[in-house]
């Protein structure tokens, strides 16, 4: 079973993502801020990371920068889940290793699973 970590501080979105991924057959680990997320990434070595950008303690860009410093973590695919689809944020996220992007206001659970399958080569 593939393992996905969701790093998201909005409870409703976290719950929605978690339920969708569990029903699609994935193992799920959750974290509610960037610091907790980094710790859980190092502990659980997930197959994929779903990462919010705006969070308490440490934002998504900072989490990605930290992941890139660790060769054993830097290969894990990252999909950003954010309220913004601004090109400048998208560009920065890609430079820090994000492979894909989901805008929360346009959230479609089917698209989420499709994007994850592409990143995991399923």
Describe this structure in words.
The protein is α/β, with parallel strands linked by helices. It has helices at 11-23, 34-44, 60-69, 87-95, 109-120; strands spanning 3-7, 27-31, 48-52, 78-82, 98-103. Strands 2-1-3-4-5 form a five-stranded parallel sheet, sandwiched between helices. Helix 3 links the parallel strand 3 (48-52) and strand 4 (78-82). It is globular. The mean pLDDT is 92.
Structural class: alpha/beta
- Individual helix count: 5
Percent of residues in helices comes to 40-55%
| Largest sheet entry | 5 strands, parallel
Instruction: Give a count of the beta strands, DSSP E runs of length 2 or more.
Output: 5
Order of helices and strands: EHEHEHEHEH
Amount of beta strand: 15-25%
Shape: globular
Strand order of the largest sheet: 2-1-3-4-5
Mean pLDDT: 92
In whole angstroms, how far apart are the ends?
12 Å
Q: Uncertain segments of ≥5 residues (pLDDT<50)?
A: none
Give the C-alpha Rg. 13 Å
Q: How is this structure best summarized?
A:
This protein has 122 residues and is an alpha/beta fold. It is built from five helices and five strands; from the N terminus they run E-H-E-H-E-H-E-H-E-H.
């Amino acid at each position: 079973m593939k393992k996905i970590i969701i790093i998201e501080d909005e409870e409703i979105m976290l719950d929605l993502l978690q339920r969708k991924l569990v029903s699609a057959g994935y193992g799920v680990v959750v974290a509610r801020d960037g610091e907790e997320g980094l710790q859980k990434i190092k502990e659980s070595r997930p197959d994929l990371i779903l990462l919010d950008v705006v969070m308490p303690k440490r934002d998504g860009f900072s989490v990605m920068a930290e992941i890139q410093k660790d060769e054993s973590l830097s290969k894990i695919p990252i999909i950003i889940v954010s309220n913004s689809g601004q090109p400048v944020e998208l560009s920065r996220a890609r430079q820090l290793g994000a492979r894909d992007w989901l805008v929360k206001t346009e959230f479609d659970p089917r698209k989420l699973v499709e994007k994850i399958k592409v990143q995991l080569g399923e």
